[in-house]
Design a protein that fits this description.
single chain; 243 residues; 7 strands; Rossmann fold
Length: 243
């Protein structure tokens, strides 16, 4: 049974469809009720098990209550994938970067990752088993200029993975990250063409990644087979990542 944030669209939806197709029950967390219902109905129409939870991952009470509800229904959480996130301003120098926008990205991309991980593990540790995957970004590794909010928060996600992975290394719970380069999703529709062109130019394959490629790797990372991987940042960057 897998909890997936940002599950209504983009990477979260793609990952949910992949896990559901492999027999997993998917609990989708998202802040957009209409899109969430549409996605859950779509997954159910394929004959899979899916449920919708309207959650604001930046709010502790919202996250805590949702995990308590999932635990009450299913008695456990096997997998948690945190895919919810926003890009924020692009093509914006730090001196012009609004503080309120920086704080908003922090609340969702980093604080949200912390809260989702905290409450997922709270449930997982009762069974001494779990798989946590935080979607990070190549921007967190290398830093994309003129995107200081997004780059710095995704760098924070890398730190969460590495630190918490060591905390639970002997407890049957793995914590890993995935650092994509640019993936073709609706999330990039508001990214300026110049910024998108810069990021794509950095990819040796000279193309965007696909949701399906991300979903395939994600499903392995959260599988029982990936039992000797923790505290690690997996690469899915078309050759851009150099470490």
């Amino acid at each position: 049974m897998a909890v997936i944030s940002g599950g209504a669209d983009g990477l979260g939806k793609g990952i949910a469809l992949r896990i559901a197709s492999e027999g997993g029950k998917v609990m989708l967390f998202d802040i957009n009720p209409a899109m969430l219902k549409k996605t859950v109905d779509e997954i159910k129409a394929l004959g899979y098990v899916a449920e919708a939870f309207v959650v604001d991952i930046s709010k502790e009470d919202s996250v805590k209550f949702a995990f308590q509800k999932v635990e009450t229904i299913y008695g456990k959480v096997d997998v948690m994938i945190n895919s919810a996130g926003i890009v924020g301003p692009t093509s914006t120098n730090i001196t012009e970067y609004p503080v309120e926008e920086y704080d908003k990205i922090y609340a969702i991309n980093l604080r949200g990752a912390f809260l989702m991980t905290k409450y997922a593990i709270t449930v997982m540790q009762k069974k001494n088993y779990g798989r946590v995957l935080l979607i990070a970004s190549i921007a967190g590794k290398e830093g994309n200029p003129f995107m200081c909010g997004y780059s710095s928060m995704k760098a924070g996600v890398l730190g969460l993975v590495k630190g918490i992975g060591k905390e639970y290394a002997e407890k049957g719970i793995t914590i890993n990250g995935l650092a994509p380069a640019v993936i073709k999703t609706a999330m990039n529709e508001n990214t300026s063409p110049e910024q998108l062109a810069y990021m794509t130019s950095k990819i040796p394959m000279k193309r965007l990644g696909t949701v399906e490629e991300v979903a395939a790797l994600s499903s392995f990372i959260v599988s029982k087979e990936a039992s000797f991987n923790t505290g690690f940042i997996f690469d899915i960057s078309g050759g851009r990542a150099t470490y």
